[in-house]
């Protein structure tokens, strides 16, 4: 099989620190130009420490028609790699040869304009994704049917439900026909039925001989779609090979485990998640929790300006992406939906002992608004294990199925003799 | 780190374990995909200091330019109460104020043209130029979500902002036609040069706007300095006064401003008074093209870091 993508010694460095922060001002640039000679004297090689290598010496080849999953925890370099391949950002060193056109889907609905109608957005979004007008016209009906939005074609998309919005956005992107399709975590949105539809659409794409690079946290989707996986950690490839064994490596290497998430990006939103941690009774952060102990999640967040109708919640997922449940802070305190004053907050939530089955789980944090839905999510903020310390099943030598393994009160009476 | 496997064996393995996929692909894939080109279509590498313009890329994305222009126009007219009327009101009201201030009170001479028509013709060009520069100057920062997610030649973004300004110019032109009828100004063959002058103005706006938009990504001060600088620029352009008002050295300085040659010749074209100042037009064209070329190369050089800093 001929290689359609060849990447050699690919590295990407991001500068951290004040000087290269989000943006500079002219004044800073002038001051810094004036003080440059002084800075050179003062700088004792600490410049290197402020650099972050998002990718380091990455080499791989991808054959035509392959569907390759890219896995790894948050910050491993997956998204940076996709950004380089889709030419959004340049590598610092290295080289990639592409033997086909690349279509990228780094986000669902890029370029959608809320004021424009569904019909108008199909054309706008399609052309942003690199389709020609004729192509869009040809596929228009197909796109509309896939998105199931026929009745709302002439309604501005700002009036769409979030489900409709996502369906339309994915539908446009799904009808791109490049030789190489690069997809980032887009299946995390939408309801279950639609996710299944998207997965089958992507399978279709690969059957038609196109090459797909797919980033996901959802190991179920990865296993279903991909023949091969590349596992990244700290910007380097740590494993590569058939999906089953690479996913296995990922899950057992401890790479996945993470009992604490601390916000590293400075986001200026009305409400920000700062940290979430899984702790035991003694407030020790731990990622392996015995079956007979409670799980306590501690969330810290800050409110920058008064918000109303906002909730903070978590969702618990199994590693194959099945949602066990979603819970929010207003479930037991409806008054939280009123105004939240600026300041820092800590909230804790507990999952009782002897409740979750043994195995690996992930926790996603949501911040949602009554009117606009989820405004922030941190996928897989925490990945932890429930360790077997005597479940009813294991005591009898069987592995019980299910997300839960509760010990329930059974009442048995002798009703006749 | 001990898990590193050899990349090339990874490829071979998966080819070997997936004979079915390879077979299906050969059968059902469209011919364009069946065989790969010998040379890579795209090579991604860190760019050197000198970056080619890649005009061919721009041509490939010409439809995107059209759609983004169309979006800008549509959204603006949808979101505002007065919609398209704004395109007319801005130069019209400015003209009325200037007529009162400079025409009546200060009594500025206007080369024998009725002052309202004189001022409006200058303001028509000027409003287009000023809005196009302001909009394109802020366009990249306003499109951060696109820049960080999708690849396309970034020049299209400031380009679309200038394009959207052309639609407004067309609407505002109707008022000029009204004024010409009102003052019984006869149309001469000279009017044929108007499209050239408008193209020149658009290129000038693109040159300045594109450069500022790239700087704006890095230095957000541009956003605040821009309205002020544009205002200053107007006063050194013959918008509300004729270039003939100045003489000697001052006039020479005025001619270095590319707007001078455009507006002065625009008036000749519309009102048929006097003859074209080819020297001034040639100078305007030369300066505009120099700005455009410099700005395009400097944009391409700054372009590679947009996604990382915007």
Number of strands of chain B: 1
Instruction: Give the CATH class of the largest domain in chain A.
Output: Alpha Beta
Query: What count of structural domains of chain A?
Result: 2
Low-confidence stretches of chain A: 17-23, 37-49
Main sheet overview of chain A = 6 strands, mixed
What's the total count of β strands of chain A? Answer: 20
Descriptive overview:
- The complex is a heterodimer of chains A (417) and B (310).
- By secondary structure, chain A is of the alpha/beta class.
- Chain A has 2 domains: 3-27 and 49-252, P-loop containing nucleotide triphosphate hydrolases (Rossmann fold), CATH 3.40.50; 260-394, abc- transporter (atp binding component) like domain (Coagulation Factor XIII, Chain A, domain 1).
- In chain A, helix 5 crosses helix 6 (162-174).
- Chain A has helices at 26-34, 36-42, 78-85, 118-128, 133-147, 162-174, 192-207, 219-225, 243-252, 392-395; strands spanning 3-15, 51-63, 67-71, 93-98, 102-105, 180-184, 211-215, 228-233, 236-242, 260-262, 271-279, 288-290, 295-303, 307-308, 310-318, 323-328, 339-340, 343-351, 359-369, 373-387.
- Helices cover 24% and strands 34% of the residues of chain A.
- Chain B is built from 15 helices and 1 strand; from the N terminus they run αααβαααααααααααα.
- In chain B, helix 9 (156-182) packs antiparallel against helix 10 (194-218) and helix 13 packs across helix 14.
- At the A-B interface, strand 1, helix 1, strand 2, helix 3 and strand 4 of A face helix 1, helix 2, helix 3, strand 1 and helix 5 of B.
